[in-house]
Amino acid sequence: MADELLELLNKAIAREIGVSVQYMWQHVMAMGMKSPEIKDIFEDIAIAEMKHAEKIAERLFYLGGVPTTKPTPIKVGGSLKEMIEIDLGAENDAIEMYGKIIALASEKGDSTTRLLFEEILTEEEEHQYTFSILLK
Predict the structure, then answer these.
(1) Which helix (H) or strand (E) holds 54?
(2) pLDDT, tens digit, for every residue of 5-54?
(3) Exposure of 136 by Cβ count < 10 A (0-12 exposed, 13-18 middle, 19+ buried)?
(4) What range does the domain containing 44 cover?
(5) I need a surface site. Which of 34, 57, 68, 94 has the fewest CB within 10 A?
(6) CB atoms closer than 10 angstroms to residue 99
(7) Rounded to two decimals, what is the model's pTM?
(8) Which long-range contacts (CB under 8 A, 24 or more apart) does 47-52 make?
(9) What is the per-residue pLDDT across 65-86, written as a single tens digit (0 to 9) for each?
(10) What is the CATH number of the domain that holds 62?
(11) Is 108 strand, coil or helix?
(12) What is the distance between the alpha carbons of residues 113 and 63, in angstroms, rounded to a whole number?
C-alpha cells in the first residue's frame, strides 16, 4: 500500500509540473483588455504550483521514491475565458486527488505527508476560488 502512496505522490508531481508550465504559458499568451491583471495571476499561480512540485518531490524522495520528470498534458486554451475554464478544471482535479492522498496518508499513519497535502490543498482551493471568481 505504501507503493500506492508513492504512485499518487508522483501523479501529484506530474500534475504540478504540468500546470506550472500551463499557467506560465498562459501568462505569456494572454491577450485582451483584461489580460494584464490575469497575466499576473497566471504567473503567481504557476510559481506556487512549481513550489508544490518541489515540496512533493522532496517528500517522495524521502520516502524512497524517485520523482517523475514527466508533466501531465498541458492545455493552454485560446481565449482568456477558455484558459481560466481549463485551469479551474485542473484545480478541481487537484483538490480531488489531494483529498485521496490525505486520506491514504492518514490511513497509513504518515502524518507528515498528510500535513503537507493539507497545506497544499488549502492553496489549491485558493487557486480554484480565484479562477471561479475570474469567470464571473
Answers:
(1) helix 35-62
(2) 999 999 999 999 999 999 999 999 988 767 788 999 999 999 999 999 99
(3) exposed
(4) 2-134
(5) 34
(6) 14
(7) 0.94
(8) 47/20, 48/123, 48/127, 49/16, 49/19, 49/20, 49/23, 50/16, 50/17, 50/20, 52/12, 52/16, 52/120, 52/123
(9) 999 999 999 999 989 999 999 9
(10) 1.20.1260.10
(11) coil
(12) 10
Q: In total, how many domains does the chain have? A: 1
Nearest to 42 by CA among 99, 94, 86, 104: 86
Q: Using alpha carbons only, what angle is made at residue 20 by residues 34 and 61, rounded to the nearest 5 degrees? A: 160
Q: Residue 25 has which C-alpha cell?
A: 504559458
Grid cell locating 53? 512540485
Q: 68 to each of 7, 37, 50, 60, 62, how far by Cα in Å?
A: 10, 33, 13, 10, 14
* Amino acid identity at 46: A
Give me the amino acid identity at 128.
Q
Radius of gyration in angstroms for the set of CA atoms belonging to the chain, rounded to a whole number: 15
CA–CA separation, 76 vs 78, rounded Å?
7
